[in-house]
């Protein structure tokens, strides 16, 4: 039987995910944060951990290049994919919010310019509210956009709130609670059912 492949993104969520897997007896003793290696085998050589950019995880899982993904709900909302979302892992908790300058008054009164790493989420949110909008896709340091006059507001992840605070911005509206989810390829759930169910039920018990 092929190893079960699990996709993770490097960063805070990876540490939480590896800790959770450790608690159910899946250990990656050769894993090191500093390593540039992209694939690690667990100690029993039954599971492979694959490091992928977080926004690419849904497509790797949908296409069956990996069997399982551990990924933030923000990424799943932004990059809709045909996968089973099986479990809320209750780690990596944050919120996706509209943020900008305090007392931003013009939010409902004219074409709103929004900067975001999440253009689909932003567009959907403001379209649903019936607000005429233009979304500018950025790839990071989104907080700069209202400060430099590139946009009126931003749509971004807020975890501790430190980045907003240190840049003189505040949350204006909350869009969605976010946490890490376990997603599974639809075919793998049948073909590797026993191994995958074991991982799911193990994680279910501890989250
Ligand atoms: C994320 C997000 C915010 C920040 C929020 O950025 O886009 O900028 O974290 O976290 P906080 O509320 O705890 O301050 P990330 O660290 O991924 O960097 P990036 O802006 O380069 O994408």
TrEMBL record:
Domain of life: Bacteria
Catalytic activity of the protein: 1-(5-phospho-beta-D-ribosyl)-ATP + diphosphate = 5-phospho-alpha-D-ribose 1-diphosphate + ATP
SUPFAM superfamilies associated with the record: Periplasmic binding protein-like II
UniProt keyword list: Amino-acid biosynthesis, ATP-binding, Cytoplasm, Glycosyltransferase, Histidine biosynthesis, Nucleotide-binding, Transferase
GO cellular component, as recorded: cytoplasm
Entry's localization field: Cytoplasm
PROSITE patterns: ATP_P_PHORIBOSYLTR (PS01316)
GO MF term set: ATP binding; ATP phosphoribosyltransferase activity
Pathway recorded for this protein: Amino-acid biosynthesis; L-histidine biosynthesis; L-histidine from 5-phospho-alpha-D-ribose 1-diphosphate: step 1/9
Gene3D superfamilies per the UniProt record, alphabetical: Periplasmic binding protein-like II
Domain spans labelled ATP phosphoribosyltransferase catalytic: 53-204
One Pfam family cited in the UniProt record for this chain: HisG
Keyword DNA damage attributed: no
Written domain comment of the UniProt record: Lacks the C-terminal regulatory region which is replaced by HisZ.
Family in the record: Belongs to the ATP phosphoribosyltransferase family. Short subfamily.
Protein name, as recorded: ATP phosphoribosyltransferase
Taxonomic lineage of the native organism: Bacteria, Bacillati, Bacillota, Clostridia, Peptostreptococcales
